[in-house]
User: Fold these one by one.
Assistant:
Number 1:
Amino acid sequence: MTSATICSYDYGQLFSGGVKLKKITFGINGDPVNNNSKMLILSDSKKYDAFGRNSRSNKRDEIVSKIISILEIYGDEDCIIVTISEREASSLEAALKAAGHPYEVTYYKDPKMMGISASQRIMIAVGVANKPSNAFDVVTTDTESSKRMLYESIHCDTWQAWSRVKDPNSEVPSIVFALGCTVEECEGLTTWGFDRSIEIAPYIERQKKRITVSCDKGLISKPQIKKCKNFDEMMKEASLHKRSKKTLKNTENLLIYNNIRRFCYKYPKILHSSEEIVKLIINRNDAYAMQKSDGSYIKFSTQVTDETIRKHLKGIITIGAYQFNQENKVKWICFDIDSHPPKNRIESEEDIRKRDEKAEYNRERMCNFLKNANIPFLLEKSGSPHSYHIWVFLRPVDGKKAKQFATIIKKESGINCEVFPKQEGIGKNSYGNLVKVPLATHQKHKTQSHIMVNGKFVREFTDLEVEVLDISGFEAPEEKTVEKKIRPEKHLVRVNGQIKTKIRPCIRNALKMQLTGDSGNFMRVAICREHYNAGVHNPEELTNLFRTQSDFSYRKTKYYIHKVLEKLLPNVKCETLRVKGGEFVNCAGCPCTEVTFLTHHIKDDFKIT
């Protein structure tokens, strides 16, 4: 018998004669075509419960909004929606239909979700395959066994369903949007192998359930799991992992992301030893820098010899390479992502954790951007914890062009990191900035750097294929000078030719921003309410207020405008705006007085067409 979800049950009991089953995995790590590596699971920061404030029924509008956003990005034809039960599926289908985006919703244990591959590559999972807590009491002899079997069943049914979107040929990336599923749940239900066990920690009031899943041997490889703080981060991570039709549309103005093949050529190069990667970095023959015991550098006006390189690789010395040669040419770009502690400030454990997580997130996002943009790179773990150098090798090119190229990559990737080259060129008798050469030993901390080879960080290798990029055909776009137009004041709203009220400056300013996250959603509600109270009752005009938002969806915006205006409420007070609106609120120039609410009949004025 074969199965990808082997539990603690003794399957030998199914055979007569006391047969002992052999434990065999197919392929490396039980994943012959390595398609788990092509899957990304995006876990949620919260759970949806069966009852209470965070129940699926109370959060239905939120869930529907997220689902519609995913469907609009990746297309109906490439998505599967699954939820906890047939009843939940019917309720969710009805809610999607009411929101103007009808779509089929299936459920865990549906026959078509078990053991059958699908053509879709996006799974929208609303919760895991939860069951009643006493579901297995009748087939077990004690509570502990019942709970263990319950979680094994949840894990089996969930993973069987999620696995439907994996590409059998391991060519197309797949994504699971695990809405209402925590990272702990995702880690547990993707852990499979021989002698699998589940440990349930004793219940402690007001604490999360702690469930530990482990396998003694034969652990099957796992997909990538990313813990997302909010839905915006989910969508960003998804776009980096798998491009969609709308992703292409939204990034059509990104010069490098979409047009790399038009002006760049790649040339493969085989590096046979660690010495060769150092020689690939060295660009100036008459000088290099050497690190001192305090971590600072001193310049040596002499040539880098083979002996210098050998000492560097052995850790006897540490050298830094000046990026520009005497002709102002460079042959690499370096993105420096680090998690160095701030100077003159004491950090808490939480501060350190957030700093490290941010560095790892930036590293992963930059690497994904370069992969999707088809830009070859070499990843180096530079030595300090959670710190990396990402190298892009170039055929010798003018420093100005390399700087423009690197700056656009940084801008389009959205990563705030240090970029080399920092200058467009150097003057006579100048050297410019330097970068520590890979495979170094830090002379102060004695930490060593490693490079990524075949998925592992190593210091030695025999054959490493890299690609050198020719960007000589790249031309940075000219900066356009936009002449400011003097526009008439728009804060006065006219209804039937008469001025009714003002839109406060803080509301007008917020409407010019990209309103993201919880604060952004709060401001959208405030903007809608203020304009309606000012006399703008046409649903089309209210919808058009938000067309400049990057995530604008006509159907979804109109749906939520209707929801906001179901209750007749006054404008949000300036004090409340400042508290809940966060960075989107600037009350400079605001009268901070409440505008009289115009009592109109919303039912007559507001109709969805």
Number 2:
Amino acid sequence: MGFQQGLSGVNAASKFLDVVGNNVANANTVGYKGSRAEFADIFANTLGGTSTQTGIGGRTASVAQQFSQGNLSTTNNALDVAIQGNGFFRLIDTAGGFSYSRNGQFQLDRQGYITNGTNKLAGYLANADGQLITGTTPQAIQIRTANIGAQATGASGAANAGLTLAMNFDARSNVVGRGTSTVSINGLQLDNAAAAGTQVNYQTRVTDSTGQFHDLDVQLTKLAGGGWNIATDLDNSGTFTNSANPLVFNALGQIQSGSPAAVSYALASPTPAYGNTPLNFNINFSGATEITGGTVPGAINVNDTAAQNMSVMVANSNLPNGDAVGAVHTFSGSYRDANGDSHSLDVTLTKAAANTWTPSVTIDGAPFTITPTPSPVTFNEAGLLSGGSPIAITGAAGGADFKINLQGLTQNAATFTSSPLEVRSTPPVVPTDPSTYTHSTSATVYDSQGVEHTLTYYFTKVGVNAWEVQSSFDGGTPVTHPGYITFDQVGNLNGGTSLAYSSPIPSPSGALSPLAFNTSFAGTSQFGSQFGVSELTQDGYADGNITGLSIGKDGVIIGRYSNGQNRTVGQITLYNFANPQGLQPLGDNRWAETFASNQARLGVPGSGDFGSLQSGRSRIRTST
């Protein structure tokens, strides 16, 4: 062997040992990529070919980097990120230059940038609403540590904004008897000499368990054999129904039998509920007498306080949000006074300004003066009622006093929709008396300043497959909501799937008032099992500061806040090259783009041929 060949072999072997030694030295260097020495033989240049040329030795042709996968190492730093597959992180130096690395050991600097050494990690930024801005060139990712701020319940702008409450109502629960239970006829004096067929008639108003009012006619008719037949007619049907027993008096003119008289009617449950709800009550003739001297009818009274409490409600209706000033819309219905007489009622709203309407009332075809003058009816930008409800009416026809509740009215579509006015008895439940309601549950909601408030819902089974809803804001007097939650014959929700909630915020408070949002009962059922809440979510929250970060496989960085909220703050982007071995090593586990590597190609983790990320992991070098 010639001296030149031997010397070239020693040089090649030395280079090989250098490569191996460098690999060994970086055995625990995160993101390091091992290299290998590649050799070639050496021949002298000749003008012509020869079969006797032996070559003049060997040389190191190249030191090739090996961009294959390394092993993962688990860390306790959520910002340590490993690439599982193809791709490089882009790093931005202090001069704005780019380099590329597989070293995912990151941390935050004093300004909130995600860095590796003095280089900042590139990616997409997010706006204040947590939406990624992917239409721009990736920039240095900066985690802003400012508080997230507060958001009122219902203010997210999402399709399901507000409160979602899914429950099971116990189908075995009894109907709560809040309707009329006793009708009394006081001071009645009947003439024992009255001819057979003589009649004494009464008319009044009664209430069923759902709060609906009915006209009741009571008719006493002298029987030929003595005593008085008791018959009733509900809602002017034209057909009187006799009670089981007549009213009979003894020789002294005192009641012997027939009082109280039991009355029962089967009423259809509120639409679209399936089934009938009974109306059961007694007619009490206590103190009545039968003597000679003519008939004194006395007076008929309904002893239930529920029957004296009346509200008029607008439900499932909408005002067009694009109406011009001066536009007029009317909601019509009727009410029964305490005597059972019916009166027509029209509630009219006239557009006065943007989101503002002036209310007026017509009773029995004549304008009714509301005293004091009611406040304008107003809506917020989301189309939810924000003021002007309820409207107090006193001294209406028939001596009726009531309130007009507009909570079922919205202003968020181009079409006017109207349902008949809902007139009901609405006695508030007594929170300390569980016999006045069936189920209850509470939710925390937030005003625009992030202050917590407690909203308690009371659900009362008032009919077969029909439930009334009342709510209490921060322990206030419960308020009845329009409509009912109703179910079909197999326990599925078929009515009252949502309600528009609005409540003023008690002083002192600087938040937007009232607090208005939608409550959805989607997913609620009525089966023969215990009451329970299966879903309770709302989109409001208090102010909060950032407490931690997490990085998903797709590179999306999520900030965790002290108020329980999570928000997207950015996304790590990856880059790949047609020829990674053409990258120029810069040291510090970084490479630079070259002509041989071709241009950097942008992508996000998990897309195309780009690898995914694993947070809390770092990648040790590739073995050689």
Number 3:
Amino acid sequence: MADASAPAWARQGTAPDGTGFIRAGSGTPVLFIHGVGMNAAIWQPQIERMAGGFDVIAIDMLGHGQSPLPPQHPELADYADQAMRLLDHLGLDKVSVVGHSMGALVAQELALRAPERVRRIVSLNAVFRRPPELAEAVRQRAVALNGRSDTAGTAQTIARWFGDPVPAALEAAAQKTASALSAVDPEGYARTYRLFARADRDHADRLPTLAVPALFMTGSEDRNSSSAMSAAMARLAPHGRCTVLPGQKHMMAVAASDITTRHIVDFLAEDEAAEQDGTAKTNTGFDSGEFRRALGSFLTGVTIVTTIGPEGEPRGFTANSFTSVSLDPPLVLVCIAHKALGHPVFATSKSFAINVLNEGQKVASGIFASKAADKFASVAWRPGRTGSPVLDGSVACFDCDMERLVDAGDHSILIGRVRDFEHNSAQPLGYCRGAYIAPGLSQDALAATQPGTDVGAILENGGRILFLETADGFELPRGRGLGSAGDGKSLRGLLAAKAIEAQLGFLFAVWDDAGAVSRTHVYYRGTFDVPASSDRGIRLIEIDAIEGLKIADPAIRSMLARYIRECSVDAFGVYVGNDVEGEVRPLARADASAVNTGDQR
């Protein structure tokens, strides 16, 4: 019950209609509405973290905690009216509302019925247009309720919300949730759950009229309140936004209270920011250098742009018209043709993700450029921060809110404000003059022309460079020619013998010995997977520590000094010359204009 488990310092009360509530703190008022089977005290983590800056009110919804039963056959309006009566009792004209699951539906109902009473709403783990199989499972659970306590049902619910078995790290959260389920009035639970089972479509036609800013947030692992549902609601709400917390399930407000509460507070605080400077800014917390490096992963390349459609379905198309726009705020853009089948979906979307493809994703590029019925059946993906699909294996991904839609000729320009991004050191897939380009192909072509060439690599992983320690000091991995894994004298043979999984990338240096006996040296940049052990003389050296190493070859020392410099600015060239003199040629001239066709292929 709410009065048994609420924090001792919180003010508990009962409204004239019997509604129970908890109140704590002072400041901007925020009303919390729990889900089916819970009570006001389930919000204890949020109350404790927010009471310092907010007037926090947590209500016991009808049939829960200290509050009276709802009508025999209730509607969402009954629960919204209860909340408004509590606000009247407390003398609060306008509040922000945070609701979880069933409580999220009540929060939406309250904002739709009385927008003048609501500043903002946060819908946590809300349901929307359940697919047939989920709708049937919920209906069956509702039919089985008989108004009596159900220990077996409680255990099944905990398993569904936390896992079976419950992970050790979530045992406390699961126990707290189970205690609330065990304490709920069985009849109040049954009446409310039957409404919950059929109310997932109640707002489908009304969300486009939602007048207040709304955050729809769920966990990537919440199968019953999925990221697609939150993305679809955010799409319909005029001021909607979707956020997906990676790895979280239905009870993330309890199981991951810190990050959940931080997102709630950041969203609610935008009101104050808007009052101060006239605009609501999103606090990305981005490292601008990392963001610049992620943008640099695109090499006149190929992207797959994704979003969630109006029915919660994943949609996507192939495009090479991607470019960065701004670092502050973080903006990118991509173009889509008016005639594209997906144009109506993307032109009305609230968010989208741009996936920069690697050189092994040519097949995926072709599929998403086609009219295939189920493009996503051919790729592995997961919901990103906005709910938009993020494709596994992409070189980089930029998960964006729609900042602005601009019509330009026969295309629309989608300008996105980046909410989240990721990138890696894989090789990007290029596209030029109607053909794909794979940078890695130059490795075989160059090495094959000169079998005796000294071929080496600067391999990096997380800011560390792979060296081989010998009696004479440190060396980079190298061999006679690129070769194969079976050729022990070649670079690939050496890497195979040392069990090093390496991915070679761009050329970094090419030079000939200046002496009478000349040999060509070719070095690549690349990445590697950390070996299981370092018993084979493998040493992983931080980039900043390279200058202190004993390296016998002065040409290698000079090359590594350049690598350190160019790493610091994330701008690499190719050295061409001999071991005495030469020049560093940029991979692209600074005055070259980027190709941006704006086509959907």
